[in-house]
# Entry
Amino acid sequence: MLEARDISVRLGRSVIVHGVDFAAKPGQLTAICGPNGSGKTTLLRAMTGDLPCTGTVTLNGRDIARLAPWELAAMRGVLPQASALAFPFTVLEVVEIGLSRGRAAGQTRAAMQALARVDLAHHAGRPYQSLSGGEQQRAQLARVLAQVGAPTDADGPRWLLLDEPVSALDIAHQLEVMQIARDFADAGGGVVAVMHDLNLTAMFADRIVLLAEGHVLSAGTVTEVMTSETLSRAYGCRLQVGTAPPPGTPFLLPHAARLAAE
Amino acid sequence: MRRRSFSAIAVSSAVYLALGALGAALSPAEAARGEADTLAIGGSVTEIVYALGQEHRLVARDTTSTYPPEATALPDVGYMRALSPEGVLSVGPDLIVSEEGAGPPETLAVLEEAAIPFVTVPGAFTAEGVAAKIRAVGDALDASEAAETLAAEVANEIEAASARAAAHADAPKRVLFILSAQGGRLMGAGDDTGAAAIIELAGGVNALEGVTGYKPLSDEAAAAAAPDVILMMDRMGDHGASAEELFALPALAVTPAAEARALIKIDGLKLLGFGPRTGAAVSELATALYGD
Amino acid sequence: MVALTDPAALDAPAPPDRLARARRLHLWLALGLVAISLASLTVGATGVQLLDVVRSLARGEELSRMEQVVLLDIRLPRLVMGLAVGAALAVSGAVMQGLFRNPLADPGIVGVSAGAGLGAILAIVLGGLLPPALLGLAGGHLVPLAAFLGGWISTLLLYRVATRRGQTSVATMLLAGIALAALSGAVSGVLVYVADDTQLRDLTFWGLGSLAGASWTKLAAALPILLIAVSGAMLLGRSLNALALGEATAAHIGIPVQRMKRLAILCVAAATGAAVAVSGGIGFIGIVVPHLLRLASGPDHRALLPNAALLGAALLVGADMISRSVVAPAELPIGIVTAVLGAPVFLWILLRQRGVVDL
# Structure
């Protein structure tokens, strides 16, 4: 379980997140959605331990504020929105950075497997800085996968915390990455992802937490949360939700306000 | 790229080694020794050694030892406050005679370890001071008789020149010694400097009052000093400013010295060395000031 | 748990292992270091030859006083000092470049150089004003002690300024360092004004750097600090790699970032402080050595740090050989040699890197 209770985050003078409760179960992909500035990334960063916040966050039953960085790292991997690299490491070396101490022979293999998963195995020897933005994002995902895939003493399911994992990717790789997240959840891991793309969310997520202005507007299964009224209210524009095959999966079309005669 | 970088490192290391070895190979060969066994440190010390007729005792000198010109043919162990221990040892001295202020202390400690006698001679900016210096050098070189003679000579010279200059005690000239005028910035000599002492001996008055040591002068301070005469060192090749350039500076243009175009240049070591030529320096300066 | 096997894609071969190659470089650099050390004991203005000394010892003869002094009191302490200072500067440079995520950082960036320089100037110009009891205690080592102290105080100051709520911002440290350097420059300027001729000369020579002052006393004080600091820095390899991805990501990977920063700053302040204190201002080793090594064998800090220590030591000893030889029996300040050789190398590196890396 990843549980956050009564989380408030203050940045400077303003309060970005107000008293938010959040819960995610392993085996599920939980999406955090909402308009820009609603506090999605801030909430995620509070749960990864980056930002100081009031309230408690527990991961696999343990209060993260009491955990050392390496204990947390054994339980969860974090995929950031963007990643600059200061020195000319190769793609493979970047993936290996996430792995535990020592130079076990298995490390390179695990890293290569992770790279294969994100379709970058053939680029393993290239300088990371020569990759495109989308390729760099996939390389980072490989790093995170390698990190949470490494054997460890910690018990409890492993978690992936993803901050807009597909924003820079083309449609094929978007689907591929979301599938990887889905497979991870299906295998028993927990996934929490900040998502912009509502259609992808509908396709791959189990639950959505919808934020607006730092508060939880709605939380529940995909079908429960993704209704026209709820989404229109959250995003402040006219949105129409329909369903498409496979049956029961909602999708939405943005509506031009002028056409909203009904 | 990697291969080339490896070879770059290898090549540069080889260059380092080669240069080092080459430098070592080019070190001065051991001179024909004979009685040469002394290292002189300090321009005035070297001058005194030559004046005492003991130059055959010298194996090497330091950078400030530029007079007489023959001295520059000797190997140079470097600036006297930054001596290299192995460099000093390499010229094979059995005796080192030095002005005050040689260093660094670590080098002196190593020389002590090597049991090489190190004689420091006193240096005061007075006639007695010069005499004492000469005697000390003479004692170190076992030439005490010649030293006594020379010391007396020089002391008398200085005092005679001073006495002549004292005739003008009622209307002494104000003299401003300028160390350098680089880029229009003036460095002048205040109290407790060799320049101030020489000016005084020659019957002048140090125009720069209230300042100690060599200090940068503001334009106004230079004008307020109102010197009658500017005194500068005469550098070889004359890198110092010419009279026109100097008096064109706003700081000096309004001084009495500028009106009279009164600029005196005397060789630096002769003027400030406080050695055998000090008497001649005082004379020269006094004559230039008062025309006797 | 998650299965990451995708059989189809696994036939992509793994690229060559740069870390292993970089570690093989340890051996070559070590050999080079031994060679240059032996050369350094042999080369010198007095012409005392190491080989002759070894032969004499083998025959059971006693060494002449000259040979003893030259070898044991001049060349050997100088060699040890050069090795330690060279390693310290190079490793400090590599650590700072890793910490600030910038290949242009130099060891002095945490304020050590500014503070050490100020300490030295204070000692040179105002040292005479201290009560004789204190001077006696310093025992002629006032300048190095003051420089070391100055380096520590300024690093501590910068650290305090840049650390809020237990988090150190390296960006703040950088900017505060610029301010500190300016302040230190101003105070130095005043001291330069007040200084007399001989003090000015001493200042200048101190700034140019020299290993000539190497003595067993100085080594007794400086060597333990240098060794401990350099060894401590070796622990930072993995952390610095992770830091290249950014501090947040490094923390996510499990690196205790704040602790690691403290260790890095501590080691660099100690190493650079001690190095500058005993040998004055020697430049370029801290910047150029890590760069050369990154070009040659990659940026992995686990190999970079030990290689930097070896190469830095060798280069400084080599530079010292040159400084002792080219104008013998006088000596060129070593800072001049490292600058003359380092600047063109640095330019060459920058030119090569154009278009490959966005600096």
In short: Chain A touches chain C through 56 residues (CB under 8 Å).
